[in-house]
Amino acid sequence: METEARTVDNKEKECSLLVIVLDTNPSQQIIRRDSHHVTQILDSICAFSNAHLMQRPQNKLAVLDCHHHGTEFLYPTPGRPLDIRQVDGQYEVFTLVEKTIKQKLAQIISDAPKMSGPCESLLAGSIAMALSYITRLERNRPLGTRINARILVVTGSNECASQYMTYMNVFFTAQKQNIVLDVCALDKSLTLLQQGCDITGGQYLRLPQLEGLLQYLLWVFLPDPETRLKLVLPPPVKVDYRAACFCHRELIDIGYVCSVCFTVFKSPPPIAGKPKKKKVRQM
Amino acid sequence: MAEKDTKSLKSILQKPVKLECKDLYEYLKTRSADVLERLYDYPTICLAVYRELPEIARQFVIRILFVEQPVPQAVIASWSSQIYVKEHTAATAILGDLGVWRSAAIPGGLPAWELSATFKRNLKIALLGGGRPWTMVNVLDTDSKARDIAFLDNYAMSRWRCVLHYMVGGATKGPDGETISPDAVRILLNANLMKRDENDGGPVITRQGFQFLLLDTQAQVWHFMLQYLDTCEQRGMSLPECLSMMFQLSFSTLGRDYSSEGLSNTLLSFLQHLREFGLVYQRKRKAGRFYPTRLALNITNKNSVAISDDDTQHDKGHIVVETNYRVYAYTDSSLQVALLGLFTELLYRFPNLVVGVLTRDSVRQALRGGITADQIISYLEQHAHPNMLLHEHSIKSKSPLPPTVVDQIKLWENERNRFTFTEGVAYNQFLSQSDFITLRDYAQSINVLIWQNERNRTMVVTKNGHDDVKKFWKRYQKGGS
């Protein structure tokens, strides 16, 4: 009986931190098709963030923007928060979140350097930034409280196997820190990020249509990991665990693995400059 | 001799009345559906009620918030996994009790749930915007004499302590020479936290009052405000307005001023009362602005731990508990000393320090007064001195108190639960063994037998079963012998 009371007490003292990584790279297909999609996605993300903050007063939020030239924080911004008064019936905190996100994103887009051609989104770096933020908050928390953190990646980019190493680093770090990684794929199916969700125990969802973004977010990604056990959610997808070779960044089925440092190669590498012992291992 | 026995027996049997602290859900459950409809017309109340719902219920509500038509109950039942069916039924019951959703029928005959339209509309307004701004947010020019958060904290705690001092000290004045208004006294009397003394007619604290004093500040404020709201209808103030105002305050930002223009007269007098209890600060009665204090924020949330980047520690703890059961309290406030004296034996008193010891007798005396071991422990934890948090054992566990002391207090409480009392009727002095056996078996068969001893031919039967057994005995006597 005592342990029950304690668990209820602890649940109240827990704070649920949601970090959203939003991909606003202009090279994405969905944005190139119709730039109004950005507004739509942004509105849905704002509503979803506010819904998260609405759940409990202890819940916290951070939003990162992954642009083609770097990652920036949309919320909370460094320095003093905006002085917001209510203009309508919306709760003050929600208005602050919305206004801050929109203002900062507008500033980022207008300040962004010109793009020479389509380029990849640096999502792995954004996830790393999110992890650092979470670690800093964990370090500064008051005694006796717990922070449950999760990262939600919303992206319409294609698969980029060139960031394979960084992705793996980031996934295993998140797993060690008990941070859950969720992914909402707006356009194409993303195998690498799927692996990340599988490793950390998060949810992966590929949207059938963009119009229902908010509803999908609310249904699948709003409950925190503990509550997800009590609800019925889309079952985990079969994950493609093929590794990418280090020389050409291609996903391979059969390859060569160095027995010293475990680097994966598509074809036997030249001896010079690489560890001597090589062993062929089927994947 | 016999009288004294029965009196002492009665005092053991009668459990002392416990302080009942309702949370928001229990408070709203007691209101009628009509009142709830009026309450849900305010976005703040919808938001506060939403936050009070259990986890699964919140997920259900947000899922159907944007759905226009009623949703079949079977569909909602399919949303929660099979293992947690009990939680699902509890959540649906709570949502029904609070009037958040209602049964509706859809074509096809399936029973369905539908969110109450007012609740849906106003929750959407609170979440997404639209509608009118809440009452207290008219545009203000900057305050020339703005108050910072530290000042507000001091003000709030000093006002609230006045109320607590009054409870402990009776009609004597508090440390600053201030006393509380007759209105507040009436609320305390109404809430059964104080009662009129028979001898001199002055108010004196009750057992529930002592339990109230041991709660943490947020719980105290919430309980007190609930009692106040119970009496507000009698004063002619409308309950939805006052409740909405209170929730608006709880959702405001600390350190910011809000305008009091446009508030109705009842709300202005409500504001004055809040000013007296320390929930808001106003420089003058006629000033057009006020500052909510920390007491008003998150008033319904009993366990809000502010994980903000600014950690302003208001009310540092002052009690050190040692493993030899000694309690050192670095305080000079008579209120804190009186509270400690409830469950410890005070040994020494210095200008800045009070030394006491937790003995079996002192703790039992508190337990007899209706205070529970958990209340004592939580009071000591709340007011633990910051140095206690640096001890090794407290870093590993969550509690800053020595585990021996905590366990011993709980054991002393359990000592009082060694007996379970059941009222019954004793049958003895049977003439023959067979009579006894027949009667005992009969009592056993109708499940009213509590205890029996074949050697002494005594048996005890419950009070309710006594009549049946008597009737059977009479029949048996007439029939048998």
TrEMBL record, chain A:
Transmembrane segments annotated in the record for this chain: none
The subcellular localization recorded is: Nucleus
Q: Which UniProt keywords apply?
A: DNA damage, DNA repair, Metal-binding, Nucleus, Transcription, Transcription regulation, Zinc, Zinc-finger
Q: Name one GO biological process term.
A: regulation of DNA-templated transcription
* InterPro entries for the chain: TFIIH_Tfb4/GTF2H3, vWFA_dom_sf
The Gene Ontology CC terms held by the record are: transcription factor TFIIH core complex; transcription factor TFIIH holo complex
Q: Which GO terms describe its molecular function?
A: zinc ion binding
Q: Which Gene3D superfamilies match?
A: von Willebrand factor, type A domain
Question: What's its job?
Answer: Component of the general transcription and DNA repair factor IIH (TFIIH) core complex, which is involved in general and transcription-coupled nucleotide excision repair (NER) of damaged DNA and, when complexed to CAK, in RNA transcription by RNA polymerase II. In NER, TFIIH acts by opening DNA around the lesion to allow the excision of the damaged oligonucleotide and its replacement by a new DNA fragment. In transcription, TFIIH has an essential role in transcription initiation.
Which family is annotated? Belongs to the TFB4 family.
Q: What name does the UniProt record give this protein?
A: General transcription factor IIH subunit 3
Q: Which gene encodes it?
A: GTF2H3
From TrEMBL, chain B:
One Gene Ontology term, aspect cellular component: transcription factor TFIIH holo complex
> Main site of residence?
nucleus
Q: One GO BP annotation here?
A: transcription by RNA polymerase II
Q: Does the keyword Iron apply?
A: no
> What range(s) does the Transcription factor Tfb2 C-terminal domain occupy?
407-474
The molecular function terms in GO held by this entry are:
ATPase activator activity; double-stranded DNA binding
Kindly state which keywords UniProt assigns to this record, in alphabetical order: DNA damage, DNA repair, Nucleus, Transcription, Transcription regulation
- Provide the protein's localization: Nucleus
For the keyword Nucleus, the answer is yes
Q: Matching Pfam families, A to Z? A: Tfb2, Tfb2_C
Q: Whom does it interact with, and what assembly results?
A: Component of the 7-subunit TFIIH core complex composed of XPB/ERCC3, XPD/ERCC2, GTF2H1, GTF2H2, GTF2H3, GTF2H4 and GTF2H5, which is active in NER. The core complex associates with the 3-subunit CDK-activating kinase (CAK) module composed of CCNH/cyclin H, CDK7 and MNAT1 to form the 10-subunit holoenzyme (holo-TFIIH) active in transcription.
Q: Please describe what this protein does.
A: Component of the general transcription and DNA repair factor IIH (TFIIH) core complex which is involved in general and transcription-coupled nucleotide excision repair (NER) of damaged DNA.
Hey, which family's this protein in? Belongs to the TFB2 family.
The name on file for this protein is General transcription factor IIH subunit 4
